[in-house]
Amino acid sequence: xxxxxxxxxxxxxxxxxxxxxxxxxxxxxxxxxxxxxxxxxxxxxxxxxxxxxxxxxxxxxxxxxxxxxxxxxxxxxxxxxxxxxxxxxxxxxxxxxxxxxxxxxxxxxxxxxxxxxxxxxxxxxxxxxxxxxxxxxxxxxxxxxxxxxxxxxxxxxxxxxxxxxxxxxxxxxxxxxxxxxxxxxxxxxxxxxxxxxxxxxxxxxxxxxxxxxxxxxxxxxxxxxxxxxxxxxxxxxxxxxxxxxxxxxxxxxxxxxxxxxxxxxxxxxxxxxxxxxxxxxxxxxxxxxxxxxxxxxxxxxxxxxxxxxxxxxxxxxxxxxxxxxxxxxxxxxxxxxxxxxxxxxxxxxxxxxx
Amino acid sequence: xxxxxxxxxxxxxxxxxxxxxxxxxxxxxxxxxxxxxxxxxxxxxxxxxxxxxxxxxxxxxxxxxxxxxxxxxxxxxxxxxxxxxxxxxxxxxxxxxxxxxxxxxxxxxxxxxxxxxxxxxxxxxxxxxxxxxxxxxxxxxxxxxxxxxxxxxxxxxxxxxxxxxxxxxxxxxxxxxxxxxxxxxxxxxxxxxxxxxxxxxxxxxxxxxxxxxxxxxxxxxxxxxxxxxxxxxxxxxxxxxxxxxxxxxxxxxxxxxxxxxxxxxxxxxxxxxxxxxxxxxxxxxxxxxxxxxxxxxxxxxxxxxxxxxxxxxxxxxxxxxxxxxxxxxxxxxxxxxxxxxxxxxxxxxxxxxxxxxxxxxxxxxxxxxxxxxxxxxxxxxxxxxxxxxxxxxxxxxxxxxxxxxxxxxxxxxxxxxxxxxxxxxxxxxxxxxxxxxxxxxxxxxxxxxxxxxxxxxxxxxxxxxxxxxxxxxxxxxxxxxxxxxxxxxxxxxxx
Lengths: 354, 495
Fold this sequence. Notes:
The complex is a heterodimer.
Chain A: H1 5-14, H2 27-48, H3 53-65, H4 68-93, H5 101-118, H6 127-153, H7 157-177, H8 210-227, H9 229-239, H10 241-247, H11 251-278, H12 289-299, H13 304-328, H14 332-350
Helix pairs in contact in A: 2-3, 2-14, 3-4, 3-13, 4-8, 4-11, 4-12, 4-13, 5-6, 5-7, 5-11, 5-12, 6-7, 6-11, 8-9, 8-13, 9-10, 12-13, 13-14
Chain B: E1 5-14, E2 17-27, E3 32-37, H1 43-51, E4 58-63, E5 66-68, H2 73-79, E6 81-84, H3 96-101, H4 113-126, H5 142-155, E7 160-164, H6 172-187, E8 191-196, H7 199-205, E9 208-213, E10 216-222, H8 228-236, E11 254-263, E12 266-274, E13 277-282, H9 289-297, E14 304-309, E15 312-313, H10 319-325, E16 327-330, H11 334-338, H12 345-349, E17 360-361, E18 364-365, H13 367-380, H14 397-409, E19 415-419, H15 427-442, E20 446-450, H16 454-460, E21 463-468, E22 471-477, H17 483-490
Parallel strand pairs in B: 3-8, 3-9, 6-7, 7-8, 13-20, 13-21, 16-19, 19-20
Antiparallel strand pairs in B: 1-2, 1-4, 4-5, 9-10, 11-12, 11-14, 14-15, 17-18, 21-22
Helix pairs in contact in B: 14-15
């Protein structure tokens, strides 16, 4: 009714899938402003800690993009965020607030390690695939537990998913203290996994095969959301539960579907971390991954394809921050603060208003 | 003596749309002014400008000799203007006197509850409001709640009361009481602006009427110098009476049979609707209408009883199965049930059959088909939007409802359940909806038409049922219906 010309144009553009990233006209400008603000804020903090902010940022940039190895490192960091984050985005789109990626990732790691350690050597060609599938299965099962309590007992999904995270982390400890643990390591970890289960790596870069897997997953999810009847039903359910009931969609079926998909993807995230980076299950290997996945999903405006740049951004930010800590000696607590500030600024600039 | 209220040359634009384009309005003390106009004609905008909810782009307002400009609602209230919204601003879990004290400095920092209760009693007596200060608002019928709002206004010494569509939720007897109260307020010298699109009430209670059309004043006259037809024409600029004279008599077989249907807040209740028949369901909201409509649509489960459609039992069928069996449903709640505002016109048009061909082809949605279907329906049902991809939220209320009409009726349903199908629509859109419903009747569908507006039910229905206390208080043929009897049924008294 009250359309002005530029809005009409952007809405037409926004419908050309897969360009439908809900990028407002001034998005680039707002991201640039957010980046500038976070650089200024971070520089102030670095200067206050007695270090040279220019040197710090140079180290950060080098850490993220400075060498093939650094790029590979950033990609590997981004991979679990992308896998788990696109699953979280799917859930949020359907109006299911799944905060359980943290636990689902941890259990995925357990699943991958268990399969890799116990896989028959005669079938070792399939070891990596089986271990990945095991991770996805464990993640999905953990999500299924939260969903069953949510739907069966009418406990809010935020509670069931969130609280099961803590249980999952303790479960990882338990398995490492028992069946999967390496005796006498002095540290809660499993023995090194057989090499057959390791993910293939790009020589020189060190980037493992998890990232392409995550890209395919994100693209498939995006296609599902925008181009399938199931995707339509979850978008309707996410906008209005009443409209979904009126359309004849089953709310429990939608909740089950998105939770199982998201759980499997989070489990896969844990699996690629274990199989591609750590090569063993270590206590706390995925600490904070699940919560960062939520940030990444929101940063990507709940659109699985837009979660790709969001995850890359966070991955590079972390890679850069680590090298800043190593090379300049900026304290690690301050590095975490800088990461947080930057994400907050970018989120404030990009998340669309409800 | 300065004028009581003088609004001159009010202009207000929203983006490219002009809502008020140089509107003048005058009001005297002790006068009831009817403000008429279609939806979108600018009457709400004008009153929001007066009450300080939005700022005008141009124009000036003088109230009791003092200019009002750049004011906010709190300033308007302090100056003696009160606005009574269509949806009451009351806290249901509080008593009448507590609602009166809410946000009112005169109630004291430490609430003077007893004193306030006494003032509520006095004012209630003086204006014939019949309100008990200790009654809980949640227990009051809508008519009484409205009086609480009026009470708040008079206790705060409002000189001017703006009533926005005050009769839309009231039973006929409550409307009569409201009009009596308004006359009493007038005799005390209050000025009243009565916003409505119901002409009979305007003719009954107003002293003068001003009509807005397309953001401008299209006419105005003292009551007594103007007829209903003239007012209607000032509102829309064309004749909008619905043709209902020559309709064929109902000859069809029973298509929808409801047998001792019972559920939470509903029934037990039995009735039948034949093909080519419209059963109008009148009654005050909250008497089981939503329960009946949603149970028939499959959104609520009945506790007992049976529903059959063309002889097939659909009592426990899921929504999707009902849709396939030929049940169409236009819910009263358009903003979050009948439509998803963030989705496009095309997506809203496929809301009820998105998993069936032609919408779905194999695993995927058939985007091309959907666009074509949407374009066809937009043309056929006169849905005015830029294109199939325009979000529903950007359409006017009338065009949003046309999406629902197009989606539900294009399937050529066997049964239509229409709930408040024309509620809040302007006369043009109302006529469109009623015409389509009547056309469906001619095609032989059985139609259940719920509306809290008795006049609308009488216009469209073949038979009229009145809901009260979770069931039908009475059913009568439209021809020769006794309005007095219907009123008694509506008020819940057995007749």
